[in-house]
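hey m, so remember when u said the tokens were messed up on ur end? i reran from scratch. heres the input so u can diff it against urs
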Amino acid sequence: MKKKILIIITLLLLISTATVAAKPVITADDTYFDINTGQYILNGNVHIEVGSRVITAGSARVSMVSKEVWGSGGITVTQGDIYFTGNTVYVNGNQNSAKIDGNVNFSRTNLQITADSVEYNWRTKTANFNGNVRVTQNGNSWSANSLNYDLRNDTIF
């Protein structure tokens, strides 16, 4: 009896672990696997989806081993009501982070932030905006050199 319970618990743990680790869905007009670098080279209408997180780009390189993405050209990073755009993106899946550079635009209900760059951590749900930061929130606008935003609590700090 104890053996059966142990087997059932082990199976339940395996099933729950498998569903937590979302398998990425990657599409592009042109895909190529570079054996030398171990990276997928993607061009045209790149769409990378991991769970509820979606990255789009004109072109990208993806390493499934290191869980990294380098993208450029019409970048979008979305998750729920979180929406970033920019020129380039570097995503490190192991560190739960994305760095978006160039003409960064972040929008959310009643909030708009533009900047030169942003570092976003989806585990802590914090975004650190840098360079020429411009904020419009609830009809009020102001500028800063840098700004930190807590997405969970909808607070700027």
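this time it looks ok to me. The first strand starts at residue 25 and ends at 27. if urs says something different then somethings off w ur setup not the seq
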